[in-house]
Design goal:
The protein is α/β, with parallel strands linked by helices and 363 residues long. The protein has helices at 21-30, 42-55, 67-76, 92-95, 100-104, 122-131, 157-169, 181-188, 230-236, 245-257, 259-279, 301-309, 333-349, 354-357; strands spanning 60-64, 83-88, 109-113, 139-146, 173-178, 203-207, 217-221, 285-286, 294-298, 323-326. The chain starts with 20 loop residues before the first helix and ends in a 6-residue tail after the last helix. Bound molecules: pyridoxal-5'-phosphate (PLP).
């Protein structure tokens, strides 16, 4: 059997990366003696306070295991089973959560909106809300935006506000999937409040896993009323960690050291380096503006196959196709250089065999 070259790091996903040192240290610090369970411990209280400091406002904070749960449960708390949630057609809640938002809301329907570069066109909100208001149509209750988006672009504060205007005009709530929220903040160089509550966001799912935590996301309600009984919702969904301190402490480590922004800025910079080098390769066509920690690039199929045979892992099924090259907190300039060197070499050397190219979509 042919063995693949071993690589330390890949460009498949920022959730391929390990735990960053700051989160690891915080975990170790929390691992002393006994502590109160189910979130009544000092680590959970301090991490929630740290989030309130980061957002410069009093918000309600809950820690859950993953992003699918964070999105599904927070969306479920924005309406009733007969409601609908509007999101971009490439949104994770639509394409990558196995129907969990519909399941946890007991039937809310996800309705899809168009928009360039993975961002919702605000006019589409109004069109969808006003097109049908009769009793046969699932009544819209919320809009969900993803920042940074699934295709690596970023909504500016003004873009979030423009959506928020339409959302509030229609009496809806605004949800933000922030699986890569840190990357968006680092990219925009804004205060976290500027793209959340000040821009009209009611609830944010703040991603930890992709930022360097072992696991976990924070659900942050800026609109307090919407957090009503959210703790029960989490418990029923199997999202209340008994040893909550290990879910919470890493967040504290990230905020106390500033690592959350530092790592995000680093991942963004690595993606920029990749994009710069790819731009100089005629066969590589960059698909979206590089604004966060990923680059989407179209490459000839034979080279995709050859890169994978050379041991590189990356996705080709996300967004509108193309290769998604995702950088993480630990991506190194050497990784970028090694990938580009292999790409340039294989563009010349790899067999341009059509049969081989047929399965270029396999990871
Ligand atoms: C990764 C990701 C999530 C969370 O996914 P889980 O695997 O459930 O943690 C949510 N939204 C977006 C846009 C993501 O990329």
């Amino acid at each position: 059997m042919k063995t693949e070259p071993q690589r330390l790091r890949h460009f498949a996903s920022d959730n391929y990366a390990g735990i960053c040192p700051e989160a690891w240290a915080a975990l170790a610090e929390a691992n002393v003696g006994h502590s109160v369970s189910y979130g009544e411990d000092q680590w959970t209280a301090k991490a929630a306070d740290a989030l309130r400091e980061i957002f410069e406002t009093d918000c309600e904070v809950f820690f859950v295991f993953n992003g699918t749960a964070a999105n599904s449960l927070s969306l479920a708390s924005l309406g009733q089973s007969y409601h609908s949630v509007l999101c971009h057609e490439l949104a994770h809640v639509e394409t990558d959560e196995c129907g969990a938002p519909e399941f946890f809301s007991n039937g809310m329907k996800v309705l899809l909106l168009p928009g360039a570069n993975g961002k919702i066109d605000p006019a589409a909100i109004e069109r969808t809300v006003t097109r049908r208001t009769d009793i046969h149509f699932p009544k819209p209750c919320a809009v969900s935006v993803t920042n940074a988006t699934e295709v690596g672009t970023v909504y500016t504060p003004d873009e979030v506000k423009a959506i928020s205007v339409k959302v509030k005009q229609s009496g809806l709530k605004l949800h933000m999937d922030g699986a890569r929220f840190a990357n968006a903040v680092a990219s925009l160089n804004v205060k976290p409040k500027e793209i959340t509550w000040q821009a009209g966001v009611d609830v944010l799912c703040f991603g930890g896993s992709k930022n360097g935590l072992p696991l976990g996301e924070a659900v942050v309600f800026f609109n307090h009323a919407l957090a009503h009984e959210f703790d029960f919702r989490c418990k029923q969904a199997g999202q209340l960690a008994s040893k909550m301190r290990f879910l919470a402490a890493p967040w504290l480590g990230m905020f106390q050291t500033g690592a959350w922004l530092r790592h995000a800025a680093h991942a963004n910079a690595m993606a920029q380096a990749l994009a710069d080098l790819l731009k100089a390769i005629p066969e590589a066509k960059i698909l979206f503006p590089r604004q966060a920690n990923s680059v989407f690039v179209e490459l000839p199929a034979y080279v995709i196959v050859a890169l994978r045979q050379a041991g590189w892992k990356f996705y080709t099924f996300i967004g509108q196709g193309g290769c998604r090259l995702m950088c993480a907190w630990d991506t190194q300039p050497e990784d970028v250089q090694a990938f580009i060197a292999d790409l340039k070499r294989l563009l010349v050397e790899a067999p341009k065999d059509a049969a081989l190219s047929a399965d270029h979509r396999k990871l």
